[in-house]
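Treating backbone geometry as a discrete language has practical consequences that deserve illustration. Part of our work consisted of pairing the sequence of a single chain with a tokenised description of its backbone. What the numbers capture is local backbone geometry rather than side-chain detail. For completeness, the protein is quoted in full, as a sequence line and a line of structure tokens:
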Amino acid sequence: MKTVSRREFVATAAAVGAGAMLRVPAFALENQSAGASSAAASKGVNHEAVVPLASPFPLKDVKLLPGAFSAAADVNRKYLKTLPSDRLLHTFRLTAGLPSSAEPLGDWEKPDCELRGHFAGGHYLSACALAFASSGDEDLKRNGDLMVTELAKCQAQHKNGYLSAFPQELFDRLRDGVNVWAPFYTVHKIMAGHLDMYTLGGNEQALDTLEKMARWVRSWSDPLSEPQMQRVLLVEYGGMGEVLANLYRVTGKREYLDLAQRFNKKGFFDPLAAHRDELKGPHVNTHVPQVIAAARLYELTGDKRYWNIADYFWDEVTSERSFCTGGTSNFELWRSDPGVLSTQLSSETSEDCCAYNLMKLTRHLFAWSPRAQYMDYYERALFNHRMGTIDPETGTTVYYLTLGNGYSKIYAKPFDSFWCCNGTGAEEFAKLADSIYFHDANSIFVNLYIPSEVNWPEQGVRITQQTSFPEEQGTTLIVSAARTVDIDLKLRIPYWAKSGSVKVNGRPVPAFSDPSSYLVLRGPWENGDRIDLSLPMHLHAAPMPDKENLQAAMYGPLVLATRFEEEPREKWYRHFASEEKQEPSPTLQFKGRVDDPASWLEPATGKLTFRAASQNQSVALVPLSSVVHERFSVYHDIQESKS
């Protein structure tokens, strides 16, 4: 990390005209290690054992400005508003013995689906709360409040704190070892939705409902021995540990922390704590939320074993089991040994929920140790996997961001899908601003280059980021402050940046920072100060770890995809499993240098568009996130050529 100190001096009137004064900053270099940031006192922290070194700004203090990210957030909110509350509540009411004549929702929310209620009473509430916190959308706040009120009526009918859209008989089957889909997975979503409505939406009734649900969970699990509970945990249970830990955080009731730790799956945690990768075989998204729970338990207890689990897992999955997009899984599983990914490309790589949850985990690790490598991964996953999964017309999302050759993206039907990934998608696109900026006691970390504005009322400063990145290769930061503000601005220099430069108020800074680090600009700052950061982008390769010549081409942070013909409209929105399967295409071959995509690619007409140079194929490569309804390929076979 490079640190640039800032001193001021003034030029005389002779330099700029009679009577004028000009402030010109001068700079000198200092060294600062990545771990030397001041600890940030988290606002309102009670019951936290670990003080973070960096904290995210509240969503209400970060605003997206016009651009691709704000457009995605807008279409997501528009979609959420099309979902009628009576249809969302239908199966909850029927299960509680209350009348409902609403038209049922389809697929994973239909009345005979064992996962029903996960979106309608869970993800939807979280998305409403997040959208309200992010954008101040009062309509979605009212929708969420109405759902909380009506779900409380359903809970009252059960008379024991239970709340779900399916009957308690599914939990009897779970206890008895009879086949059942994932009842705790759904209950977790409902609990998390209520927690978000309380913490982000200020709905006190949501907390009351949530505590009643938690007490029901305790009454159900208390009679089980530890071996019985470990058998229960073989069935997917989502983030039960995380939501119960967070409930302890807001209430201070130790019973919830103890209950959270009953959801520790020993057979999964023990190898991770010993730094053993025994991940081949398990269902991926069953387990990532368990590691998020471990991260949260570390923060609340200070137990370094939980830190060890989360830290090792993140490093192993992102380095050995993730594709160029930051996504992971094939057919929802880890099916290979560490570092063996060339055999794992199909129509079902990689599941969206996994990227969503890995990004959540990344935020925890960055808070403990604000290193650029974490936000390098976050940028990769956000710009490629997440932004590549939303349909700009309907606001629905895909289940898999396929990385096999010649497939297309299959989006959810607005009222007849409700897959798990549609739920996490609705949440993701309601909180796109959550990691652009973090802060410690005296610094702002500028992690992502997205048009946005962050307000730090405690320091009396607002930073506006003006950019069209990645179309624009850099960004501009404008300081707004009523008085001089003595803080540091820490600008992430991405892993892909071979070079770059920065200017303050038009004057070049005679320093820069290495790739995958932070460039620190020291204050004081005054109203109107301007920082211009240039980050020239270049082509580079993202090879398979076990097969170097099978690789994706990247431009800066962007994964490039070979774009083929558009699919017929009737194939845009359908179920990935029950309808016509897509046929793969052969792997495209190109001649060039394996270590340099610029040897076989050249710029073409159009923003961020490339074409194969001196090749048999005449194809165009574009950012994966810009492919909507076309077939595409990401990984190509590069045949070594010395010419």
User: Anything to note?
Assistant: The mean pLDDT is 92. The CA atoms of residues 600 and 613 lie 5 Å apart. The first helix runs from residue 13 to 16. The chain is about 35% helix and 20% strand.
